[in-house]
Amino acid sequence: MTTAHELHTTGLREHLAPALRALGLTGRQRAFVLPDDTHRLLVELVERPAADRVAFTFGLRVVRRAGGADGAGGADGAGGGDAARGGGTDGERPGPDAGGGVEVWRARIGEVLPVGEDVWWEVLPGPRWRLPLDDAVAAVRDYGLPELRRRAAADLSPTAGPYLSPAELEDVNAALLTASVARVQRAELADGALLLTGAWTRGDGVARTVLAGAAQGFLSAGDERFRTVRCLDTLGRELWAFGPTHP
Questions:
Q1: How far is it, in rounded angstroms, from Cα 27 to Cα 88?
Q2: Residue 191 C-alpha from the chain's centroid
Q3: What's the CA gap between 89 and 49, in Å, rounded?
Q4: Which of 59, 133, 235, 242 has the smallest set of CB atoms within 10 Å of its CB?
């Protein structure tokens, strides 16, 4: 009988890695990079082995390039070596990237998913053993890659970046929780606007009403760096805008 460990290895080699490469990533089974002119956008497998199974998730990293280094170096060359040999296991930092550069952001993929917390997948024997692999690929496609691109773009803009830390958002999120509205995952500045991101949908009237009140609170602070507050879903699609020209 095929064990969970054997299925995990087969699944990475024959399903997960080819599916990630089909999304435009290059690299080996455990370390991949998305081509970009200014940054290395890294997707690195993190494994948590147990006696009878192996759980896995992904680490995401944005590294600003130094001297026009080849972006594939972090995955195909020396930079992916530690992860490819298992160095990406839980609690261990992947090895340095070939070509150097400055790391500007890193997170586990669960942090950019709607759940906002660590997410692990497991490949287990049975007729549906490929479903966790498909779900993991979908998470990279729909959330991981858009977030990597967004973080790289923000790093190039001097007016973009974090506005409030997660701790500073606690009061706002407490008010949202009272109204049973999903929390604000990020509050960042870009192009003269304060961008609030969360797991909201356009048809949620309660969320719109509560967020309109939160937006007015931000606008009343008189911060000259933004004149509008825009609410985005977790895929970066704009839902609502509030400000002088947005009732």
A1: 14
A2: 21
A3: 8
A4: 235
Query: How much is the pLDDT for 84?
Result: 34
pTM (two decimals):
0.66
Q: What pLDDT does residue 202 have?
A: 92
Distances (CA, A) of 22 to 27, 61, 128: 11, 20, 22
Task: Give the separation between CA 57 and CA 132, rounded to whole angstroms.
Answer: 11
Residue with tokens 């939160």: 214
List pLDDT tens digits, range 45-89: 999 999 899 999 999 999 988 764 333 333 333 333 333 333 343
Quote the tokens at residue 245.
């020209």
Residue 92's pLDDT is 36
Per the CB < 8 A criterion, the answer to whether 191 and 159 are in contact is yes
Provide the edge-to-edge strand list for the sheet that holds 193-197: 161-164, 186-190, 193-197, 228-232, 238-242
Question: Can you tell me which residue has the tokens 């909201």?
Answer: 200
Residue keyed to tokens 């911060």 = 223
Q: Rounded CA gap, 191 and 39, in Å?
A: 21
Q: How far apart are CA 219 and CA 60, in angstroms?
A: 32
Cα angle: 145, vertex 151, 154; to 5 degrees: 140
Low-confidence ranges of the chain (pLDDT < 70): 1, 29, 67-100, 158-161, 246-247
Cα–Cα dist 67/72, whole Å: 14
What is the H or E stretch that residue 162 is in? strand 161-164
Token pair belonging to 94: 């992947």
